[in-house]
Inverse folding.
């Protein structure tokens, strides 16, 4: 990997364990990665793999059980509350569902100016209005909608409000938690284009969380594949798609329906479903569904290790040249 | 004369009557589905896909929904002339439907075995014992162990619930299966399992399938023919290979341009500007004209009529009538 000072965010061995009635739920089970300034890390995985929890833990919306995050050299998890509030201006989040993440009783102006008010950014109402209009222009919301309420707007426009709120404080780092999953394909493309343009213009650093492989490929520089609270494979977007090593990544890629009729593809159909993350058994989390498991896989958990330059895999069989 | 197609929809118009006026949800729908074939129905939210499917099943909430005109010929008989009693025996028996969300389409207080058995005993003369046995066979068929017949829906995962829904739908060997976004609520590896199962069962039961989806990938893989819907109209209709290989309507092209590729470049997506129009306030002429990049003066004056651009390839566009393609 590149030199450390280029990294905006370094996460080391993050764990998050929820205590439930049934036992301990290992939502994130030892995850480490770095995100370089101005790049996008795509986090993919299926429901319940811990990707959203990870996004929230990184910016301390949920406190981690253990591990550390350094953001621009500052140790986030040990910051006292008032310092954390200052740091939050530099890191923002856009949520998946623009229908439930906006207060239905606030209009567009109130929604977008809320972060400005909370952080006391603008002195006067006029100045604040100027900022709100500028943000509306940036995210492609017509100014005439400034008095509209969320229920009057469609999903795409609501998501634009969510993005404007995140941009209001001019952050460096934005967690995008499934920002386009609730949207139709044309609107999804409009929002993806907007996010791409914002990044080109302002050099934001994104953590892009999604279950949609083709969307993640489109926006990401590096892609991390999660399964059962762990990163099982991480590489640049091209390598992941061209030479997937982990059997789960292979299965995930082969399961994407591609819009080319008659395309001949070998589909890897996984047996069964994701096991429960409550008190998981020893060994590789993918053991029960893996199509090329060996004895060692059920005994020890494989660590994420460099398979080749800038391509890491957590699989016992990777060293033997992979599987399948 | 050859046999009539299994399903032949002619000039179907469905409106929702509201206090503010009528909303035209489906406008002049013409579709044919041959026996044993699969037809894909693609469109965005509000395009009228589900309304059309509910119309075929005569399950529209009436009022406000109303089938204004048209004919729905199933095996040559117009479903719109059937009485409610006749429809009840067709639904579930000859035409079955799979809904998008398996969490809400199963009864939470009945076991899955009972729910399949209920379907079988409603539509066949089997004894209670035989119905129960057949229900267990159906569970086996969709890959759920028959011992789980006594489970309640909440004990199953999303993928398994959708398998149960499929078992219920296929229990009476329907001739037509309408699947409304059957895998949208599922994860991609589970979606692959369910689609694989549906493909196998469709062949085993020689069922025709009307597949509603917004995912062009699924349609490409699954369907023989594809219809693209926009604002209640089928704007383009052809065999899947022809439509994907040679999309003509500007909306279809925009739809394809909006999908991020898993192999190609990563530049901006060629999407369609603007939003789907409000169905109660459609623009004059062609409903797509305000967003269209090739619209000419005639497009806002008159609504286009479907023309056969090529053999079996229909397009609803003034500027694409076959002879003057861009």
């Amino acid at each position: 990997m590149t030199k450390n000072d280029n990294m905006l965010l370094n996460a080391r061995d993050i764990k998050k364990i929820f205590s439930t009635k049934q036992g301990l739920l290992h939502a994130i089970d030892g995850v480490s990665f770095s995100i370089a300034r101005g790049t996008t890390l795509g986090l993919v995985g299926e429901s319940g793999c811990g990707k959203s929890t990870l996004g929230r833990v990184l910016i301390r919306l949920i406190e981690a059980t253990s591990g550390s995050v350094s953001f621009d050299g500052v140790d986030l998890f040990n910051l006292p509350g008032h310092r954390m509030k200052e740091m939050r201006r530099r890191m923002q989040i856009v949520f998946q569902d623009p229908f439930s993440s906006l207060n239905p009783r606030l209009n567009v102006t109130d929604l977008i100016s809320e972060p400005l008010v909370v952080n006391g950014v603008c002195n006067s109402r006029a100045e604040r209005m100027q900022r709100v209009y500028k943000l509306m222009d940036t995210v492609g919301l017509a100014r005439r909608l400034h008095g509209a309420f969320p229920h009057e707007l469609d999903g795409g426009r609501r998501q634009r409000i969510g993005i404007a709120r995140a941009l209001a404080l001019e952050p460096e780092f934005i967690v995008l938690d499934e920002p386009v999953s609730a949207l139709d394909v044309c609107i999804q493309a409009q929002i993806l284009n907007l996010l791409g343009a914002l990044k080109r213009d302002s050099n934001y650093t994104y953590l892009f969380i999604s279950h949609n492989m083709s969307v993640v490929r489109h926006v990401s520089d590096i892609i991390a594949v999660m399964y059962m609270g762990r990163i099982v494979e991480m590489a640049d977007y091209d390598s992941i798609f061209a030479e997937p090593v982990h059997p789960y990544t292979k299965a995930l890629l082969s399961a994407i329906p591609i819009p080319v009729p008659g395309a001949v593809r070998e589909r890897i159909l996984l047996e069964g479903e994701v096991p429960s993350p409550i008190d998981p058994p020893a060994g590789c989390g993918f053991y029960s569904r893996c199509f090329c498991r060996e004895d060692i896989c059920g005994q020890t958990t494989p660590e994420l290790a460099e398979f080749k330059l800038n391509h890491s895999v957590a699989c016992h069989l990777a060293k033997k040249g992979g599987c399948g | 004369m050859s046999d009539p197609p299994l399903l032949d929809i002619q000039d179907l118009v469905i409106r929702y009557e509201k206090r503010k006026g009528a909303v035209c949800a489906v406008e002049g729908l013409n579709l044919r589905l041959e026996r044993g074939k699969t037809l894909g129905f693609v469109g965005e939210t509000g395009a009228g896909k589900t309304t059309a499917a509910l119309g075929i099943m005569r399950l529209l909430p009436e009022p406000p929904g109303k089938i204004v005109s048209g004919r729905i010929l199933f095996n040559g008989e117009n479903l719109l002339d059937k009485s409610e009693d006749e429809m009840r025996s067709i639904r579930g028996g000859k035409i079955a439907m799979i809904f998008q969300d398996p969490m809400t389409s199963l009864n939470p207080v009945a076991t899955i075995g009972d729910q399949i058995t209920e379907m079988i005993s409603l539509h066949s003369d089997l004894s209670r014992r035989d119905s129960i046995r057949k229900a267990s066979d159906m569970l086996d068929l969709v890959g759920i162990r028959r011992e789980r017949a006594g489970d309640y829906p909440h004990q199953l995962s999303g993928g398994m619930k959708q398998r149960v829904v499929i078992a219920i739908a296929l229990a009476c060997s329907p001739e037509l299966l309408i699947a409304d976004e059957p895998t949208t609520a599922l994860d991609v590896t589970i979606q692959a399992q369910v689609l694989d199962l549906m493909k196998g069962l469709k062949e085993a039961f020689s069922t025709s399938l009307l597949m509603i989806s917004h995912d062009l990938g699924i349609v490409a893989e699954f369907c023989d023919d594809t219809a693209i819907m926009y604002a209640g109209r089928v704007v383009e209709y052809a065999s899947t290979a022809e439509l994907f290989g040679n999309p003509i309507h500007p909306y279809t092209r925009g739809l394809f341009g909006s999908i991020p590729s898993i192999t190609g470049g990563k530049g901006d997506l060629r999407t369609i500007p603007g939003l789907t129009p409000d169905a109660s306030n459609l623009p004059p002429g062609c409903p797509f004209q305000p967003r269209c990049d090739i619209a000419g003066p005639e497009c806002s004056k008159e609504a286009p009529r479907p023309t056969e651009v090529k053999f079996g390839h229909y397009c609803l566009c003034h500027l694409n009538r076959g002879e003057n393609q861009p």
